[in-house]
Write a structure and sequence with these properties.
mainly beta; Jelly Rolls; 11-stranded mixed β-sheet; disordered N terminus; licheninase activity; glycosidase; hydrolase; ConA-like_dom_sf
């Protein structure tokens, strides 16, 4: 994978100037892509494990090692995907790409590239300080931020229950302080499942929770692709990072680990017609 600088690093992530509050729905038809996580393990036909930066270290000074097909970090339990971040050290003898990290976790990337349409991911989040769960999208190639990034859900454990939705592009990104997004407080995000939703259209991107939109960004700014690169299919990413410039801003509570992000299902509906 092209070495993107991923995630936002600033506390100002999720500027509220793109906040909306209105109903949001998903189609009644069958999804074009879905994973209900009802099998015995992660479906390797639908997901790949991203381990590309383990030896060199992950972006944003994150502290985790992302394992591949390791039950301790990714498994199916009672019809849900569990991504578990653990405080533990590995060994070069068993994990050749281990870069000396003191935490392990998993980063899953959809094998299918998904574009315009409606998305719904039902998940329960971890709230331990130092945990950084995310449900988000990147293109398969291109330079960050020019190629774009769609953050459907991000949360940092030191600021629990505050859910961030954000878009990044060449003209609008956290490195410039121009990122476009919103945030919403969900008091039960770590104790109950919630539906994180995306409606991606050529003219707008809307993100919501539990049938209520809380962010909308319109494709109405000059600048061409620098303002709106969201014109081709992206990959969907599910991961739980540890620490980092934003996630670890208030330190890491080692006593709080292991931490889990549970995903009940992922569903995507392609545009009709």
């Amino acid at each position: 994978m092209t070495p993107f600088l991923v995630f936002a690093q600033a506390v100002t992530l999720g500027a509220t100037n793109y906040t909306v509050d209105e109903p949001m729905s998903v189609p009644a038809s069958a999804p074009a892509f879905a994973d209900e996580f009802e099998g015995r393990g992660v479906d390797r036909a639908k997901w790949r494990y991203d381990t590309a930066r383990n030896a060199a270290g992950w972006y944003n000074n994150e502290r985790q090692y992302y394992s591949a097909a390791r039950q301790e970090n990714a498994r199916i339990e009672r019809g849900a995907l569990v991504i578990e971040a653990r405080r533990e050290t590995l060994s070069k003898a068993r994990f050749a790409d281990w870069g000396g990290q003191a935490y392990t976790s998993t980063r899953l990337v959809s094998r299918r590239r998904l574009g315009y349409g409606v998305y719904e991911i039902r998940a329960k989040l971890p709230c331990g300080r130092g945990a950084w769960p995310a449900i988000w999208m990147l293109p398969p190639d291109g330079k960050w931020p020019d190629a774009g990034e769609i953050d459907i859900m991000e949360m940092v454990g030191w600021d629990p229950n505050v859910i961030h939705a954000t878009l990044h592009s060449g003209a609008f990104n956290h490195a410039k302080g121009t990122q476009r997004g919103a945030q919403k407080r969900i008091p039960t995000s770590c104790t109950a499942f919630h539906r994180y939703q995306l409606d991606w259209r050529p003219e707008s991107i809307t993100i919501g929770i539990d049938g209520r939109a809380h962010m909308r960004v319109a494709n109405d700014q000059p600048g061409g692709a620098a303002a709106w690169p969201f014109t081709r299919p992206y990959e969907l990413i599910l991961n739980l990072a540890v620490g980092g410039d934003w996630g670890g801003q208030k330190g890491i509570d080692n006593a709080a680990f292991p931490q889990r992000m549970s995903v009940d299902y992922v569903r995507y509906w392609a545009p009709q017609g």
